[in-house]
Each structure stands twice: as C-alpha cells, then as structure tokens.
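Budget justification aside, the reviewers requested a transparent look at the raw inputs and outputs of the sequence design task funded under Objective 1. We therefore reproduce one unedited record. The lines immediately below are the structure tokens for a 253-residue chain.
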C-alpha cells in the first residue's frame, strides 16, 4: 500500500494543538512529503464545535495548496460502548468521521470500575464490537490505545493487554468492521515497540480478511506532520494491497 495519504491531522482548532501554524502550512508540508490525498480531522467538542464552520475553515485554507486532494474530517469520542459524543445528523457536514475509543482525558468518557490490563482489554473489546451500531463511521483511530496511559495511576502493559484477546475475539471485531465498511488506522504509535508487538496479530488478521486501512500521523503541530512515514518499513511488511487503502466518500454508505 502506497503511503501517499494521511487523514488524521489537527489544526489549531483542536484544543490540544499548538497554535503557531495554519492548515495551509500543514498541507504545504504534507505536499512536500509526497502526499496526494490528505485530511484534517479536528476533535469534536460538544460545547464548542460547529461542524459547518469547521469544514468551511479547513476547506478555505486548503484552496491555498493546489495539487492535493483535500478532505475535511472529524475525530469524535466514544463515551461508552455504543455511545458517541455526537450523532450522524450533527456530524454529517464532514467528508469522513473518525472515532477514538477511548480518550480518557475527556471527563465525559465512562471509566471502568476496575483499572487493570484485563479490564481495559474488555472495555476496548466492548467498544470495538459496539461499532455495529454506527454504520456512518468511516475509521477507528489509534486502535487499542489508551490515552493517557497513566490516567489511573497504573502502567498499561500493551503486550499483556493484547494477550487477553483470542483469534475469535479479533474475528468478531473484524466482522463488525467489514459489515459497516469501517477502516482501521495505522497510527504513528507503531513507532513504539510495545504497541507494535501487541497489535500486529490483529493487523495481520485484518489484512487477511480484507479490512480497509487509513493512515494517521495524528499531528498537532508542524513537526509531527508526516510522522506516519517513519514506520513505512513496518507497514510495508504487512503487504497491504492498494485496494484496501481508505478513501473518504462523503459517508454515502
């Protein structure tokens, strides 16, 4: 799969982004790195975001960078299994919808009663299979990642956490992804050895069953733009065919 696209990047509109750059500068940097299809997917805030205005802001700046195909997306939180922070009617102005499960630094997100690797694994599994309720979702970003990892006064052991899943567990998750045409993101976290070791069996199973893949640098500043290219060798080793590359299609599912 050619690494010529990246749909997980944040403008200064995201609260966790730095404020010393513009969308235009991000896109110019991405173009210089060889990207031909790109997107901005700012976080959705129920008390602040006006989707139509966010889309207009991004697309107006993208007009300054010809020669790339631009899409305006959103990153919305899953608050609990089967509950998103916004419904489709609210998110429909975007070209694509990405969901993070979970972002525990969002105080609206339900937390497990017990904090242990096994409990976190169960929480993530419950969230992943609940995507069956959201056919309008386009991609799951940074799958099997827990932000922030030290939120509970514990250390998340990524390898041990992933060891709780069986091939059957992965198949049930993949069934949901395929039935709803939801892509899995290959995230710059793949630069972290423990994350890679833990998630590779799942990714390989996704490839073998024909799940689509998105790419995400998850840039919140200019220095991180294109960082997914730093794990190109690992992504190449998955032998993902080009036809499994995610392309936004205005949620016409």
């Amino acid at each position: 799969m050619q690494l010529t696209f990246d749909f997980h990047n944040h403008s200064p509109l995201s609260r966790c982004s730095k404020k010393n750059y513009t969308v235009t500068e991000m896109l110019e940097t991405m173009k210089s790195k060889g990207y031909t299809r790109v997107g901005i997917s700012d976080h959705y805030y129920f008390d602040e975001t006006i989707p139509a205005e966010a889309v207009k802001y991004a697309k107006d700046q993208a007009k300054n960078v010809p020669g790339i195909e631009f899409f305006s997306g959103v990153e919305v939180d899953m608050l609990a299994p089967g509950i998103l922070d916004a419904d489709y009617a609210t998110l429909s102005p975007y070209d694509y919808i990405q969901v993070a499960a979970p972002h525990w630094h969002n105080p609206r997100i339900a937390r497990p009663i017990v904090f242990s690797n096994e409990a976190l694994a169960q929480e993530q599994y419950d969230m992943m299979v609940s995507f069956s309720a959201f056919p309008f979702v386009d991609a799951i970003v940074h799958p099997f990642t827990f932000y922030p990892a030290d939120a509970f006064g514990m250390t998340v052991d990524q390898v041990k956490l992933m060891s709780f899943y069986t091939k059957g567990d992965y198949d049930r998750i993949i069934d949901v992804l395929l039935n709803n045409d939801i892509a899995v993101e290959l995230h710059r976290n793949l630069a972290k050895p423990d994350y890679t070791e833990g998630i590779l069996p799942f990714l390989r199973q996704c490839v073998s069953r024909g799940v689509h893949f998105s790419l995400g640098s998850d840039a919140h500043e200019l220095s991180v733009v294109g960082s997914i290219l730093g794990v190109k060798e690992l992504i190449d080793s998955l032998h993902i065919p080009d036809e499994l590359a995610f392309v936004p299609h205005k949620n016409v599912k």
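Residues 5-244 form a domain with the TIM Barrel fold (CATH 3.20.20.140). Strands lie at 5-6, 37-43, 69-80, 83-84, 96-100, 139-141, 183-187, 213-216. Computational costs for records of this kind are itemized in the attached budget.
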